[in-house]
Structures are given as C-alpha cells and as structure tokens.
Amino acid sequence: MLVIIEIKGTDWDAIPADRVMRNLRRHLCQLQAYLDTAIEDMEAGRREGIVGALLYPSRPARAETLAMIEAVAGEQAVQVTWYDEVEWQL
What we know:
The protein has one domain. It contains two helices and three strands; from the N terminus they run βαβαβ. A three-stranded parallel sheet has the order 1-2-3. Helix 1 runs parallel beside helix 2.
C-alpha cells in the first residue's frame, strides 16, 4: 500500500468563503497528479493500493467550510487530516 500525503499550510479561516472551493479543488488536483504517477505501479501489480490524503494545519472555524472540505475530499476518496490534532509518536 502506498500512501501519498500532500502537506498544506492553508489557513482556511483567512480565505474568503467564495474562494474556498477553488482552493480545495486545486489541492485535490495537485494530489491527484501525484496519485496518477503511482497508478501504473498498481496496475502492474507492484502495489496493492494507493491512498491519498491532505494534511492541513487546523480545522476551519466555520462548520460549513469544514463540512464542505471533508465532503468534497471524501467524494474523491481522499482523507483530510488536521495536524494540530495528530498525536505524533517518535
């Protein structure tokens, strides 16, 4: 299994509401470009699967923004994670 994580520094609260979807779609396109490069390996049997994830600094304060981000990413089978909530273990 190959996991590809696109790490972003996006502050969703600083982005005007009418531009959130545009930014999210751009992030998903960037991640998809990375995933596309690994599809050949998967189709050739060199990988069992590929998983994509977006990692952002923190959840947006607006519930509607959070719901939209998670819904749109989920439609593309992309996991969204907020690194201020991740328990780091070394």
